[in-house]
Fold these 2 entries.
Entry 1:
Amino acid sequence: MVVRDLGCGTGSMGRWLAPRLRARQQWFVHDRDAGLARRAAASLPVPATPVVGTVADIDLTGTDVVVCSALLDLLSAVEIGALVDACAAAGAAVLFALSVTGRVRFDPADRDDARLAAAFDAHQRRDGLAGPDAPDRVAAALGRAGMEVRRETTPWRLAGGSAGSRPLAEEWLRGWCDAAAVQDPTLDVDGYLARRLTAPFAVEVGHVDVLGLPR
Ligand SMILES: C[S@@+](CC[C@H](N)C(=O)[O-])C[C@H]1O[C@@H](n2cnc3c(N)ncnc32)[C@H](O)[C@@H]1O
């Protein structure tokens, strides 16, 4: 089974998925960052080859499975359409995991949550990127290409109140606020962060997985 992981990063998708596929596998791990592609290939428990390039350059000839995680929002509508067409032409099954949906729910709520969320989503949609629209676009395109499509919600639940996950919740929060501030400099991001970082909080960050199977 030939599997390609697009935008592989450090290879987390391969380390998770490869042991779950009951077949002999050859993986190709693609990233535009050469260092990440090499690191991902070395970390997989099955044979894996690093490929340096962008999704736009991809050749899926002979590919059985195409996967990615946390990538779709970084692609344009045109790139998403071309990718789905290429997957369908290759007859490949696809699993596009962990795409952001734009849904963010804090506990407790803050008066500025909605403004920050709107600015973050607008930042994700900059320069024609699909951002939180990516999962809907990809699911529709897979359906049009004749594939059987399944979606599952896969939210991140970060509990900023517990000692164990507080550093991760804070790191996510700072990144979210930074992007919102770039998009809308009128936001009082410092005030918002000061309120959030001096009190416990939990946040659910909407994500979705989309599976497409050739019929
Ligand atoms: C958010 S990270 C996700 C990494 C990994 N898939 C994971 O889930 O941990 C996105 C990755 O995609 C790569 N990337 C972004 N846009 C890309 C493109 N157009 N073509 C190829 N790789 C891309 C980045 O270099 C980065 O490693």
Entry 2:
Amino acid sequence: MTQDTNISASPRRIKRGWMNLRVERIVHETPDTDTFYLVDADEGGRVFDYIAGQYLTFRFDDLEAKPLVRSYTMSSSPCQEPFAAVTIKRVDGGRISNWFCDKVKVGDILRARGPIGKFVFDPNLDQPHLVMVAGGSGVTPFVSIIREYANKLGHPLAPRQMTLLVSHRSQADIICAADLAAVEQMSGVKVITTLSREDRRSEGFWFGRLDEDKLSQALTGTYKSATYMTCGPKAIMDQTVAHLQKMNVPEACIKTESFES
Ligand SMILES: Cc1cc2nc3c(=O)[nH]c(=O)nc-3n(C[C@H](O)[C@H](O)[C@H](O)COP(=O)(O)OP(=O)(O)OC[C@H]3O[C@@H](n4cnc5c(N)ncnc54)[C@H](O)[C@@H]3O)c2cc1C
């Protein structure tokens, strides 16, 4: 993974209106998930400004009688110029996620607004240890955050330590697997992947659904010094929040982002 270790990267313009984003590259991540690399077509192919964890809202005027609007979080990091990327997982019967994965091609122009969102690391308010709990496509903001801060841990504007606990069905479903495997080797970063439907414990994965036991095992010792972020299926988010409340973690140290409307 190539990263810029300068946290205050060269100033870029702030843009918050509707943009025409050109698809520069598409990477097939897993059998049902693709990453789309985007640049701002109106600004000579530059990248818009964003904070790791923020999302874009896309608008589709021509697919149905009424415009459709969907949000997708950047999985890239702002330090990874010259592109921004969104990683989209197909939802069964979903109109836009399947349209993205089936129809969008390199060179297409997509209308999007943003970036926006407060599901980010806040150096002024958050604890030095950032603990992230995700399921499925809910890992996208955390991939962005890990890409942004993994090489900057301990910097005044970055966390000191990061832990990601993520659940996928099988090894083939792991989103951005290569980058996450690479950061696992770095000091200060811990990635725990539990596979709910495939037993690969001999290869270092955990096995089974992300339940109370796994949360306890992964989070023990963190409760007094961490900020927690959780994103993904409602069941995982609810269970994580309930576990943290049981462990008396203050509300200000728990952040959630729901992908489901
Ligand atoms: C702030 C935000 C950020 C998001 N970031 C991402 C991202 O980075 N990557 C990503 O893949 N998705 C992300 N999403 C979800 C995305 O916006 C869409 O909701 C999702 O792609 C489904 O849209 P669709 O048009 O395919 O499905 P729809 O046609 O809207 O829905 C089809 C069916 O699927 C159900 N459904 C809708 N959304 C979900 C969901 N997320 N999970 C399970 N079932 C669902 C609906 O209830 C409905 O029954 C994000 C959502 C929000 C609000």
